[in-house]
Amino acid sequence: MEKVKLFINGEVVTVNANNDVVEAVAVKGDKILAVGTTEEVLALNEDGEAEVIDLAGKTLTPGLIDAHLHVTTIGTNTLSVSCKAEHIHSIEDILTDLRKAKENTPKGEWIRAWGFNESKIAEKRYPTIEELDAISKEHPILVVRTCTHISVANSYTLQLAGIDKNTPNPEGGIYEKNEQGDLTGLLIENAHMNLLALASFSDEELDKAHAIASDLLVEKGITSIHDATSFGPRNMRALQKAALEGLLKPRVYAMVGALNNAEIIVERMLDAGIYTGLGNEKYKIGPVKLFLDGSSSGPTIWTKEPYTSDPNNYGVHYYEQEFVDKLFVEAHKQGWQITVHAQGDAAIDMILNTIEKANEVCPRPNARHRIEHAGIATPDLIERMKKQGIIPTPNPAFLYEFGDGYLKNYGERTNHMFPLKDYLEAEIPAAITSDSPVTDFAPMRGIHAALTRKAFDGQEVGANQSIDLMDAIRMYTINAAHASFDEEIKGSIEVGKLADLVIFDRALLEVETEELLDVQVAYTMIGGEIVYQRES
């Protein structure tokens, strides 16, 4: 017989329609049995066999849902050199770590680094191809920028990929060259994305990566993820296997696409005859996805007006309107949820044009099409999102890590970047995401940024769009569940829903905003099972 768990004397943030805060919750098996006062819940322990957990005033919330991250990359990055490590302050620091990695890497095997950000190191530049060649010409070396849209490669990597100075730029990408016409090793947007297929990981490495990522995520209270698949079908197979076999504990809603040649993956899935929703509570197929533009911190996003920092730069876009319309109107007809990476207002405008056409040709109530990131979302674009029932997935944590660059590159447009308050006023159920490993997956980082709108250097970035804590929690729970058609089974603490719960080490609703970053998760529960417990 399943033992009942009773959580009493707490600050239970239910995230129900009334935002009720109660004292206690009862769990039986993998479901929530009762919600109410401590007295009401204790009354269920008639036989005295229940496990009683005294919260002692601490907060219990629904499990947190990150509606856009790259779980495989989070894991594989732990197998690579981190450019975000505390000791990294210069190019030489990175080169030193790459040299150390070479010592343990057989010739011909990959040496990878991740999280590079030229604005955060002394030289304010990228490593050069010559510097990487000096480390090795017998190992492929790839240093990936924090946005994951740009990288620097050594000569050996370019040779493996068949890239030389005469290779034409791919559509939506650039192989950078110097004044003499020689390759610098810098790969921008699709030039970088196409190379990632070559720099793939083994099946054993993927299993290890998923197990590592799982432990990291549940430690932060993340019980479900919407995975923005990085490496195409092979990655999806490994991810499904990891989820169904329990190697990856958080529930998975898997987007269908890839960082390179996503349109080919989407076309194949349309031919396969399946559509969004196939799967179960552990692993489910989500939307088909394309990239429409670049990185907000690169900066390579596609904007209607030129960058504030460069009057000749409007960013990068991947496809023409006609192509996106043809592919995604058909996907819409077949029952797919559709989504795109769209950071700039021009890219958002493009996908809105497509969705408007799709709904005109084939009206589909409750299609819940999405826009990943939706960076510069001006009021006119938000009004169109509202009319089409679109769900944006903004990244407030980006404001902390990249806010100084946003102010430089986009100026007053930062008042409409990740506009959480505007979404609230328009009653659009935006779901906060990290896009990790682009930035920290810890939900408290994103929640703190949603409240403060401050960059790491203290500058405010669109302070007019700040929201309060309860609204931020809703965006990390019930709104994210809504974005995957799961609000009836998770995302709030209500009877009959899955017992995906998080206990924090203090009362969240009583802490000062700046203290949020110190908040730790005490317990994480998925389906009634404790999958993480913090050591005291």
UniProtKB/TrEMBL annotation:
Superkingdom as given in the UniProt entry: Bacteria
Domain Amidohydrolase: 51-532
Keyword Hydrolase attached: yes
Keyword S-adenosyl-L-methionine carried by entry: no
Single Gene Ontology MF annotation: hydrolase activity, acting on carbon-nitrogen (but not peptide) bonds
Gene3D superfamilies: 3.10.310.70, Metal-dependent hydrolases (3.20.20.140), Urease, subunit C, domain 1 (2.30.40.10)
InterPro entries: Amidohydro_3, Metal-dep_hydrolase_composite, Metal_Hydrolase, YtcJ-like
The protein's Enzyme Commission number: 3.5.-.-
Pfam families per record: Amidohydro_3
Keywords: Hydrolase
PANTHER family, A to Z: IMIDAZOLONEPROPIONASE (PTHR22642), PROTEIN LONG AFTER FAR-RED 3 (PTHR22642:SF2)
Protein name: Amidohydrolase
Organism encoding this protein: Ornithinibacillus sp. 4-3
